[in-house]
Write a structure and sequence with these properties.
Mean pLDDT: 95
Shape: globular
Order of helices and strands: EHEEHEHEHEEHEEEEHEEEEEHHHEEEH
Helix content: 25-40%
CATH topology of the largest domain: FAD/NAD(P)-binding domain
Radius of gyration: 21 Å
Strand content: 25-35%
Length: about 400
């Protein structure tokens, strides 16, 4: 039986893949999304902090900065149009020690350079006015930051794709990609699919998909597990909205923080500990194949050598709930061990270069008849609509060649 042929096949039913399909569907082009799991947003898109980022952290002019600022407003508009609850509640970034003040200065500079209006520099008294239980020597108030359920956003995008004539297949893990003169033949758990152009938004498997297509991605995906706790209902009043630390610029993670969700709960986390399986949501999850892939990649060992101190600290916080709470107490001293319970974990697909560098910006590689998204870190969910449009533009160029 001949495979079904589409103009575009998107591997990955997360928010970036779905936003790309949404940008392409309805243009008299046939589009299919192939998702490995039985549901959409099963990995990073459905297991994150749910924050709509303002654009505070990112180097002016970078892909992150440009996409975050435009994508933030596109996300708020999309949520309003599709009756998804999104709150522009604002965020407080707190410097808890004097040595963090130069980094707080740099954040303020970047935020203003990225066009954020209404940023306020706060002293200890003003911090307590915004968040009565927070403590710090200085802070930044960022009013554009918000909260949303990105799983709900992804599902709403899928509805748009279907209404526009696109097709979504779940349970369609791709295990083969064969480049042909007129397209790419994909072999999945649902059968064979032929496409003129492939979009690889496979997240934790994106480097493997690229290699199956004959492309050297020049990076390897290393999984980092982020664990979340939740404040017990009686202690949710300790946090009004969002409280963040000043991040370490040498590490592309924002540090453990407090986030109020649209449902009114308060989450705390995540940490960032090396996972021993690409889809390993538990500390006990181990994949010999994934470990072997990491061990064979020289960049993995260089990354370990460069970040071992931070890695040990993250592992300690993962193993000890009390240590995790100690990190939270730097922001909100009133938090006690009895105030939190373990909630869930997410796994981040972190691209690592051969020199051991943790890629901090979006990384997209084009090859004949394919576009590979090999690094889509935060704020990818915030910026997903604009990232999807950018990827769609690259697809159109290939279709029109």
């Amino acid at each position: 039986m001949a495979p079904v042929t589409y103009d575009v096949a998107v591997i990955g039913g997360g928010i970036v893949g779905m936003a790309t399909a949404m940008a392409l569907a309805g243009e008299r082009r046939s589009v299919v999304v192939l998702e490995a799991e039985s549901r959409l947003a099963a990995h990073q898109s459905g297991n994150n902090s749910g924050v709509i980022h303002a654009g505070l952290y990112y180097k002016p002019g970078s892909l992150k900065a440009r996409n975050c600022v435009a994508g933030r407003e596109a996300m708020y508009r999309f949520c309003a149009e599709h009756d998804i609850r999104a709150e522009r509640c604002g965020k407080l970034v707190v410097a808890t020690e004097e040595r963090e003040l130069p980094r707080l200065d740099e954040l303020e500079h970047r935020g203003r350079a990225n066009g954020l209006e209404g940023i306020e520099r706060l002293g200890p008294e003003a911090i307590r006015e915004r968040e009565p239980y927070a403590a710090g020597v200085a802070g930044l108030w960022v009013p554009q930051t918000g909260i949303v359920d990105y799983g709900a956003v992804t599902r709403a995008m899928a509805d748009v794709v279907r209404r526009s004539g696109g097709e979504i297949q779940t349970g369609a893990r791709v295990h083969g990609c064969r480049p042909l003169p007129d397209g790419i033949l994909l072999e999945s758990a649902r059968g064979e699919t032929m496409c003129r152009v492939l979009v690889n938004c496979a997240g934790l498997q994106s480097d493997r998909v690229a290699r199956r297509c004959g492309v050297d991605p020049r990076v390897s995906i290393v999984p980092f597990r982020g664990e979340y706790y939740a404040l017990v209902p009686a202690r949710r009043a300790l946090v009004r909205n969002l409280i963040y630390p000043v991040p370490d610029p040498a590490f592309p993670f924002l540090g453990v923080h407090f986030t109020r969700t649209p449902a009114g709960t308060v989450e705390a986390g995540p940490n960032a500990v090396l996972a021993l399986e690409r889809e390993g949501y538990r500390a006990a999850d181990v994949s010999l194949r994934d470990l072997a892939d990491m061990a064979r990649f020289p960049g993995f060992w260089r990354m370990c050598a460069q970040n071992w101190r931070t890695g040990l600290a993250e592992m300690y916080r993962s193993a000890s709930a009390s240590a995790f709470v100690q990190a939270l107490r730097k922001l909100v001293p009133a938090v006690e061990r009895a105030d939190v319970r373990y909630l869930r974990a997410g796994v981040r697909a972190q691209a690592v270069a051969a020199d051991g560098a943790l890629l901090d910006d979006f990384h997209v590689v084009e090859s004949p008849r394919a576009v590979h998204v090999l690094n889509a870190p935060s704020p990818a969910a915030t910026a997903s609509i604009t990232i999807g449009r950018t990827i769609a533009d690259a697809v159109r160029r290939q279709l029109d060649d």
